[in-house]
Design brief:
By secondary structure, the chain is α+β, with helices and mostly antiparallel strands.
Length: 380
């Protein structure tokens, strides 16, 4: 494996950093944490205008998948609000992979320009990670489909232009076989969005579908092929986009605070910061391995699971350590006087448990590793 970047990719990374420096201001960061909407339209449009989103879209851009990793690694290290953009590019990759020519022409330009976001309607309140057991139904009615049901954790539904929605279309088939994915505009009549505010500050949503009517042009990936479509999204999310360096902004804020209050030179502080930096470097290398596998024509699903488990647990260790070191000041939030790391120590302590759920829970990823890599029997 050769993780060195070409001159073209290095230039791409440099331009990404310049755009982030210009658009991700302290006010943008504060807006993200105040509203819970982890998205910055000005950043998305700036990247889209330069063609950088198209370059990073899986299967579409000339630099994919290495530039996909570079883009989100730079956004993550900067602490930029990129959740909305990450979902949008994942779905753009799936539309490019499985969509019809008409869907590609109708949907992709709005995403790669940075103008449109996409939300994902997968999980339901009673089924969580057991997505194959969902109850939201799509029933063929003449030339249209009628959709009824509800979804939980539909993040960005209050901002998105497009919705990718997993439904059950055949109750007589095995649960993994009778699913169909749709992609439709969020302003389609019959869709209701209710906010759900989370432990990690992000706003997500509950969404409800009451006699939502769509045509066959909304089917993504084929009728009763929804499971394949969904796993294609997860392969992009776990394999290359990562989320592997979430602790880097925390370390930067903690470093500045530790110097300010005079504990940075203590041996225990320096040792733990070094261990944390090593963990983040290992997580970055694991993600680059996935990107290299994808660039070589492989599918990094298993390697993505390994990356996600390691990176999520490292982030939790680091956030716990920084909060323990900060003591009572590590319990103070943004805009509170004396808050450790300007409140980021407290924020990351709340946010780090959430990353064990994104893109499949740690339990699911561990099972994936155990069964596919170690050859152990299924746990259930």
């Amino acid at each position: 494996m050769d993780f060195s970047l070409s001159d073209d990719v290095l230039a791409y990374r440099s331009k990404i950093r310049s755009i982030v420096a210009e658009t991700v201001t302290p006010d943008v960061i504060d807006r993200m944490h105040t509203t819970g909407t982890f998205d910055a339209p000005e950043l998305n449009r700036a990247l889209g205008t330069q063609g950088f989103l198209e370059r990073a879209t899986p299967g579409l851009g000339v630099g994919d998948p290495i530039e996909l990793w570079v883009l989100f690694n730079e956004l993550e290290k900067a602490g930029a609000p990129y959740d909305g953009l990450a979902v949008a590019l994942m779905i753009a990759g799936v539309v490019n992979l499985l969509g019809t020519d008409e869907q590609k022409e109708r949907i992709l330009p709005s995403i790669i320009s940075g103008e449109a976001l996409v939300c994902m309607g997968y999980s339901e309140a009673d089924y969580g990670s057991d997505v194959a057991s969902i109850k939201t139904r799509a029933v063929k009615d003449g030339d249209e489909w009628t959709i009824n049901g509800s979804k939980m954790w539909t993040t960005m539904a209050h901002e998105a232009r497009w919705l990718i929605l997993l439904t059950r279309t055949d109750v007589d088939l095995p649960k993994h076989k009778g699913l169909t994915m749709f992609i439709l505009p969020m302003d389609t009549p019959g869709i209701t969005v209710d906010p759900v505010h989370t432990l990690g500050t992000e706003r997500t949503n509950a969404t409800y579908y009451d006699n939502v009517r769509v045509g066959d042009d909304a089917v993504l990936g084929g009728v009763n092929n929804g499971w394949r479509t969904m796993t294609s999204v997860l392969a992009f999310e776990r394999g290359v986009m990562g989320g592997s360096n979430a602790a880097i902004p925390l370390l930067r804020h903690f470093h500045d605070w530790a110097q300010e209050i005079g504990i940075f030179d203590q041996p225990i502080t320096r040792e733990r910061m070094a261990r944390a930096a090593i963990d983040m470097q290992v997580a970055s290398l694991l993600t680059q391995r996935s990107a290299w596998i994808a660039a070589s024509g492989g599918s990094p699903g298993l390697e993505g699971s390994m990356t996600k488990v390691f990176a999520a647990e490292a982030y939790q260790r680091i956030s716990r350590w920084t909060q323990e070191t900060a003591g009572p000041l590590g319990l103070l939030q943004f805009h509170e006087s004396g808050a450790a790391g300007e409140g980021f120590v407290e924020y990351d302590a709340r946010h780090s448990p959430v990353v064990t759920i994104y893109g499949g829970t740690t339990e699911i990823n561990r099972n994936n590793i155990a069964e596919r890599h170690l050859g152990l029997p299924k746990s259930r």
